[in-house]
Write a structure and sequence with these properties.
It comes from Penicillium argentinense. Keywords: Methyltransferase, Nucleus, S-adenosyl-L-methionine, Transferase. This is 25S rRNA adenine-N(1) methyltransferase. S-adenosyl-L-methionine-dependent methyltransferase that specifically methylates the N(1) position of an adenine present in helix 65 in 25S rRNA. By secondary structure, the chain is of the alpha/beta class. It folds into 2 domains: about 80 residues, no CATH class; about 160 residues, Vaccinia Virus protein VP39 (Rossmann fold, 3-Layer(aba) Sandwich). The chain contains 8 helices and 7 strands. The protein has a 7-stranded mixed β-sheet with strand order 3-2-1-4-5-7-6, with helices on both faces.
């Protein structure tokens, strides 16, 4: 199959927001689910490299492999199962727990907090069921009504605070972006979509979820380097939690942006480490 615009777009963004899935829907084993997700990520990475090298034949071959594996739909199904109740649950539950103290101050006469959920897969997760939140959900391959089919990197930039968001959720999204520069651009773009308003002590906030391996087993990224990258974009981490598979973080945006480039550099040499990285270009 020849590469097309849609396939190219699939390689540019990450969309794996975990919904609540009933356990009796889990038809794949945990091992099979992990294998499918890992394979999809590896193919996307290879596709990005082939596209950068101008190897159209290689791109076409990888596209065929991705489609043979069920494409994005199959990946999203595996992601749903991977975040089902029996395999860890809905990550937005933790988000709601973390911001509950501020939400308890919310007055029903006030406008709801605006939330942008990138890579949404469900309209029934915890943040969607919270009355004080007005959730906008986007995904490259919308599977439900109520989720807008849209690439975050192509969403028009807001021109006023009324078009911006109090909170952006990137739950298992950044790791889906196939190249290190694209990940940096996504984080920079989040800043442009966050409001400068702070209703009832609620600062502009980013909810970030990544596989632990991205920061614990990478040659090019550590948790400290991730903190440095986000700090220069004006973020300060206020909450963090780890499980055996995932790292959850809540970042408040201070508005004090100090642009600084971060290149791909060796931080943790090791034969068995992965190559996950974030490149931040200045400007």
């Amino acid at each position: 199959m020849a590469p097309n615009k849609r396939n190219k777009r699939l390689g540019s963004l990450s969309n794996t927001r975990p919904p609540t899935v009933k356990s009796n829907h889990a038809k794949l084993s945990a091992k099979a689910t992990r294998t499918l997700i890992r394979s999809h990520h590896q193919l996307l990475k290879a596709r990005a490299q082939a596209e950068k090298a101008g190897d159209e034949a290689r791109v076409s071959s990888i596209d065929a492999q991705i489609n043979a594996n069920g494409g994005l739909e199959s990946y999203q199904t595996a992601s749903k199962l991977g975040q089902s109740l029996e395999r860890g649950g809905d990550s937005s539950k933790l988000l709601i727990d973390w911001i509950k103290p501020q939400l308890n101050e919310w007055d029903t006469a006030l406008p709801k907090l605006r939330v942008l959920e990138v890579g949404a897969l469900s309209t029934k997760n915890a943040c969607s069921r919270t009355p004080s939140l007005d959730v906008t959900r986007i995904d490259l391959n919308s599977q439900e009504s109520g989720i807008l089919k849209q690439d975050f990197m192509e969403r028009p930039l807001p021109s006023t605070d009324a078009e911006r968001f109090n909170l952006i959720s990137l739950s298992l999204v950044l790791n889906y972006v196939p190249d290190a520069t694209g990940r940096g651009e996504m984080l920079k773009r989040c800043v442009k979509f966050l409001t400068s308003e702070c209703p009832f002590s609620f600062p502009p906030t980013l909810f970030l979820v990544l596989p632990v391996a991205c920061v614990d087993n990478s040659r090019y990224l550590t948790e400290n380097r991730l903190l440095e990258i986000l700090a220069c974009l004006g973020f300060v981490m206020v909450q963090s939690k780890r499980t055996s598979k995932l790292i959850y973080q809540l970042w408040n945006h201070t508005g004090a942006v100090s642009p600084k480039p971060f290149k791909k550099e060796m931080l943790n040499p090791g034969h068995k480490r992965n190559n996950f990285a974030i490149i931040l270009n200045k400007g």
